[in-house]
Request: fold
Amino acid sequence: MPIQIKMPALSPTMEEGTLAKWLVKVGDKVSSGDIMAEIETDKATMEFEAVDEGTVVSISVIEGTEGVKVGTVIATIAVDDDDGYDAVPVPVVKPVHATISVAGVPAPALIAAYEPFVAAPDPVPAAESRVVASPLARRIAIERGINLAVVRGSGPHGRITKADLDVAAAPIAAAGTVAVAAPGPLATPAPVAALVTTPAAPFTTDIPHERVKLSSMRKTIARRLTEAKATVPHYYLTVDIRLDALLKLRAELNSALSGEGLKLSVNDLLIKALGKALILAPDANVSFAGENLIRYSRADIAVAVSISGGLITPIVTGADIKSISIIQKNMADLAARAKVGKLSPHEYQGGTASLSNLGMFGIKQFEAVINPPQGMIMAIGAGEKRPCVIDDALGVSTVMSATGSFDHRAIDGAEGAKLMQAFKSLIEAPLALVA
Reply:
């Protein structure tokens, strides 16, 4: 019995990925645990292991293909008793990049006509998941760049015929001109807004430049941040915090830990402070979930780390109860593995709040974008010498500005203010961080 290898979901939220590189070829024998391919997700490039033993008899998705949907057949292997198996690969090519003119056909009508024929296939048992199509339909699909996995067949047992391909393509052809940059499969139609706002042509300029193709990570960052700003009602609260006591404590701790080879950063102490502040202000340690509010009893802090081509947010779990030295060890390990793309999905997905520190770049203050479903993010500016009033006398202190971005659907202004107040108090009186 041939075994179809499908595009895996390498994280709970993964919907598609890029098949970056094949490490096997047709005819190779594989065993459980062998690395078959490298798959690029929105956050990292991960290795895909074989779970069965057999011989690779077909590869259906060429390496470098972007936008491969989770569940798409990417290869087929035959076990030892399948020597006579004649592989017929499901044609999967690069996604179509099309500009659709809907002149004369309202977008809702276009979608209504399109959906019955091109939609995600109904779930079927693994043994029955192979695409059934006539030889003519398969040849036409290859010529037209149509993904048979998303076409519903009208023949016996769902068999796809030439007529099914003609019907599936008709709504798009009837809508107007489709300018195709590369052959690709038909896909579930985009929302109406995406159809009508797709630019007619790529942006061009006479200014000397180079065109850099977006990585999967950069595409995801662009999509998620756009969604966050468009759908999450942000508001911002800023406090100025004196750092002198925190810097003194850090120096004393580093002196005490020097024999262990540990060196705490200011960021390590800020992670601890935000974790404790969220427990002290529990109404800010929440997520908006439609008709529900998720109230967390633990503070997991996602920390923004800049990596090549974007950023990632590895998570320090239980930051409210971990010692600062353990937080330092966790962050050193997470940041190092983040920069080489070796984090597991559970290490960068989730978290109850985020912290983003641009102080090392000399940025005085900024407002960060919330990472849903989290309810807030703390933006940290640079510590700098500023004149300030200390015990009713004018003096000079090291001061930083911290700005909290809050989701107003989940956190009211007063609750956000309580969190900022707790955060400020913990930093200005930092012995509570080591209690």
Notes: The longest helix spans residues 216-231. The two ends are 62 Å apart (CA to CA).
